[in-house]
Specification:
- This protein has two domains: 13-273 and 363-392, Methylamine Dehydrogenase, Chain H; 275-298 and 310-357, Herpes Virus-1.
- Helix content is 3%, strand content 49%.
- It contains two helices and 32 strands.
- The chain has a four-stranded antiparallel β-sheet with strand order 1-32-31-30, with no helix packed on it.
- The longest helix is centred in the last third of the chain and has 7 residues, at 298-304.
- One of its GO terms (biological process) is positive regulation of fat cell differentiation.
- Keywords: Endosome, Metal-binding, Repeat, WD repeat, Zinc, Zinc-finger.
- WD repeats lie at residues 20-51, 195-228, 238-279, 362-395.
Length: 400
């Protein structure tokens, strides 16, 4: 009797819709134009380009504008078609795009920073332009008058910026790994708090105003979810990249986080599950399972006539253990460990198959991603990479 051939399960993955090429240098930031087959990009080659899809199916520039300095970042407001561009020389230049996206008209310039602008946010509800720069300054300006309203000096160069309109709280992530929360008024700000959880610099921030959760990505390859609204100080780690996390985006309607990194990975995290905090690592002079001394515990080594062992930690319980008592590996997805990590033998036996079920999907973009933009209405994801290429993806197979 012939063996029955079982069909392989279909792998759900993003569909590459388009490659947009033509920039001479890295595209530092780009956005999908809502309700249009278009993309706006700013590049290190000093160009601002609006790419529209032609009858041939290819994207070609309808606007090609050269700025006086390399373009480091941008903020686009679709309702007003206002485009704010941060430059390497510290200036923010504001433009208004025409309805057909074939013309851009200069509006004003802000002398915002002493050096390169790192992030910009335009807040329509308050008519504010928020920005950070390599001069370690956070600043906000009135977009109507162009007047500077205030500033705050950060502990290091900022690389992440988010704003909550309802509470007027601004979140700033910097290269030291610190996140600063400020409360903004019309002409002054007050420091609410600072916190840190990364061992590397913060590279990206993403704010969910509904769940009141802040996500931070870092050069330490991790993402941390900070429960700001819960007021309990809960911080959930997500470990799914093998290189620095470069960009984050959040799909509110499905409660999925998209993280992208220097490893080319696009990771889609299911945040609609009950996640657990990783335990604090415990200190001990001997293994907390077999009581063997660690190599610095000379007294116990002498008394027991035993050779000191190297200390490890179980990622599930946090106990200090020796290599023999932690020889097993396991994934712990609800703790953010999608790949196998060291666990003690007793925790390995206690982890069920259900607890090992993945809560994230992993996809290869085949380029080193520096920025992403997600269009939730169509389920499209834009990635720009160090290869000077913009890629458009249909994420509906995995974000739904």
């Amino acid at each position: 009797m012939a063996a029955e051939i079982q069909p392989k399960p279909l792998t759900r993955k993003p569909i590459l819709l388009q490659r947009v090429e033509g920039s001479q240098e890295v595209v530092n930031m780009a956005v999908i134009v809502p309700k249009e087959e278009g993309v706006i990009s700013v590049s290190e080659d000093r160009t601002v380009r609006v790419w529209l899809k032609r009858d041939s199916g290819q994207y070609w520039p309808s606007i090609y504008h050269v700025m006086p300095s390399p373009c480091s970042c941008m903020s686009f407001n679709p309702e007003t078609r206002r485009l704010s561009i941060g430059l390497d020389n510290g200036t923010i230049s504001e433009f208004l795009l025409s309805e057909d996206y074939n013309k851009m008209t200069p509006v004003k310039n802000y002398q915002a920073h002493q050096s390169r602008v790192t992030m910009i946010l335009f807040v329509l509800e308050l008519e504010w332009v928020l920005s950070t720069g390599q001069d370690k300054q956070f600043a906000w300006h009135c977009s109507e008058s162009g007047q500077r309203l205030g500033g705050y000096r950060t502990s290091a160069v900022a690389s992440g910026l988010q704003f909550d309109v309802e509470t007027r709280h601004v979140f700033i992530g910097d290269h030291s790994g610190q996140v600063t929360i400020l409360k903004l008024e019309q002409e002054n700000c007050t420091l609410v708090t600072t916190f840190r959880g990364h061992t590397g610099g913060v590279t990206a921030l993403c704010w969910d105003p509904v769940q009141r959760v802040l996500f931070s990505g870092s050069s330490d390859h991790s993402v941390i979810m900070w429960d700001i609204g819960g007021r309990k100080g809960t911080a959930i780690e997500l470990q799914g990249h093998s290189d620095r996390v470069q960009a984050l985006s959040y799909a509110q309607h499905t409660r999925q986080l998209i993280s992208c990194g220097g490893d080319g990975g696009i990771v889609v995290w299911n945040m609609d599950v009950e996640r657990q905090e990783t335990p604090e690592w415990l200190d001990s002079d001997s293994c907390q399972k077999c009581d063997q001394p660690f190599f610095w515990n000379f007294k116990q080594m002498w008394d027991s006539k035993k050779i000191g062992l190297r200390q490890h930690h179980c990622r599930k319980c946090g106990k200090a253990v020796c290599g023999k008592c932690s020889s097993k590996r396991s994934s712990i997805p609800l703790m953010g460990f999608e790949f196998e990590v060291r666990v003690c033998d007793s925790c390995h036996e206690a982890i069920t198959d259900e607890e090992r079920a993945p809560t994230a999907t992993f996809h290869d973009s085949k380029h080193n991603i520096v920025h992403v933009h997600f269009d939730a209405t169509r389920g499209w994801l834009l990635t720009s990479g160090t290869d000077k290429v913009i890629k458009l993806w249909d994420m509906t197979p995995v974000v739904s």
